[in-house]
Design brief:
Oligomer: single chain
Number of strands: 4
Order of helices and strands: HHEHHHHEEHHHHHHEH
Shape: rod-shaped
Helix content: 55-70%
Strand content: 5-15%
Length: 430
């Protein structure tokens, strides 16, 4: 019986024989080629039958100053071109504005409503992937004119240029309506303030007029009372003087009777009455003393006393009484009060009312037409693209070919490795 002597095992080499590997790959070139062709074919099928996506963009720049002059000239609302551009950009980036446009133009998005998706779901998916805002680089913004834009990536079946341009116009109209609404609110608020000021001015005028009338009437009443008091005092004074005069006359009459003086005489004449007069004598009496009243004689004194007793009023003896009567008559009618009360249009006498009415008329005349309000300038409108942005057919086919070659080589390498391991196992068993 022969004895089996195992052969000594050779240590496995860890080095890769590149020549043998290349030879093995060349022997399996058909497999590599088939894998490359298959993957390239699949890539070609995807490139030709995948839904193409296109890309359009629209760019906005600040409007000219003259385009906003009518708005700024109102003096109520100030909007610079850069501010208007930012507001339109914010509207373009607004989810609510985009959703509102989507709801108003669902016919433009019919292709997105397939697969049983609701309009809200379709818009959510489209909005997340389709829109991208365009803005200048913050680092280079100082060297670039400000602009705002939107880039839209859309599948075939959607009119991308119409959607992009329509969304831009919709955002502009939204901001335009907001500006006009803000302006109208400001105008209404200013008119309300003016109306309140007019009401206050009228009330103040009425109060001032009433106070003025009251002051005039009070002054007249006071003056009238003072004149009546003065008149009463004057009459009382005149009556006292008349009574005193009557007493003086009565006393003088008694003295004149006792002296027998009937006719007016003088002291010297009274002393010479007993002397006989010889010839024609002319006497001149110089006397600086007041002649007593009884020298007037009883006839004159009695006549004056009777006249004073018969007098019913002493008003004519004092000129001031006539003046008082005149003043009292003038106070019967205050022409200033009558003029104030007879005013038919009180507003004519309010100086500030004319200015407030003029301002109110100016505010009501402000009528800003939306089509005349150019907030931005469309620098680049979206145009129909010539080629889709994805899939890029040539690139997909080339990548498919490369991937096929890599896949084929990988398959061959796996086969070579498995084959080598199998041969090594058989050799060990022998």
């Amino acid at each position: 019986m022969s004895q089996y002597t195992p052969l000594p095992q050779q240590p496995a080499s860890t080095e890769i024989d590149l020549v043998a590997l290349a030879h093995g790959l060349w022997q399996q070139k058909v497999v590599i080629g088939l894998a490359a062709v298959l993957v390239t074919l699949l890539a070609s099928i995807y490139a030709w039958f995948a839904t193409p996506h296109y890309e359009v963009q629209s760019v906005l720049r600040p409007a000219a100053i003259k385009d906003l002059d009518e708005l700024n000239a109102t003096g109520l609302y100030s909007l610079k071109p850069e501010q208007a551009l930012r507001r339109v950009g914010a509207a373009l980036d607004s989810y609510d504005v985009r959703l509102n446009y989507f709801n108003q133009h669902q016919q433009q998005f019919n292709v997105l409503l397939r697969n049983g998706r609701t309009p809200e779901q379709a818009f959510e998916a489209f909005n997340e992937k389709a829109f991208r805002m365009l803005q200048p680089d913050a680092k280079a913004q100082g060297n670039l004119a400000p602009f705002v834009g939107i880039r839209l990536t859309y599948p075939r079946g959607v009119d991308g240029p119409e959607v992009a341009n329509g969304l831009v116009l919709h955002a502009i109209n939204v901001v335009r309506e907001q500006v006009i609404a803000d302006l109208n609110v400001i105008i209404e608020n200013r008119l309300s303030v003016l109306d309140r000021k007019i009401i206050v001015a009228r009330a103040a005028y009425e109060a001032e007029k009433s106070a003025r009338i009251a002051r005039l009437e009070e002054a007249d009443s006071l003056k009238r009372a003072e004149l009546h008091d003065e008149l009463l005092a004057l009459r009382q004074e005149l009556r006292s003087k008349r009574d005193n005069r009557i007493e003086q006359l009565s006393e003088a009459i008694q003295i004149a009777k006792s002296l027998g003086i009937v006719k007016p005489t003088t002291p010297s004449t009274l002393g010479n009455q007993t002397r006989s007069a010889s010839g024609n004598i002319i006497r001149t009496e110089v006397n600086n003393q007041r002649v007593p009243l009884y020298f007037m004689g009883t006839e004159a004194l009695d006549a004056e006393r009777q006249a004073l007793l018969a007098r019913s009023s002493d008003d004519f003896t004092n000129a001031r009484i006539a003046q008082i009567a005149k003043e009292l008559q003038l106070l019967e009618h205050n022409r200033q009060v009558e003029t104030l009360n007879s005013r038919e249009n009180e507003d004519l006498f309010l100086a500030e009312l004319a200015d407030m009415r003029g301002e109110a008329a100016r505010l009501r005349s402000i009528s800003l037409e939306p089509e005349h309000l150019n907030l931005v300038r469309i620098d680049q409108a979206a145009q129909p693209p010539l080629t889709p942005v994805k899939p890029k057919k040539a690139l997909v086919i080339v990548l498919g070919a490369v991937l096929g070659l890599v896949l084929g080589i990988a398959i061959v390498l796996v086969r070579i490795a498995l084959s080598s391991r199998a041969r090594a196992g058989i050799a060990v068993s022998l």
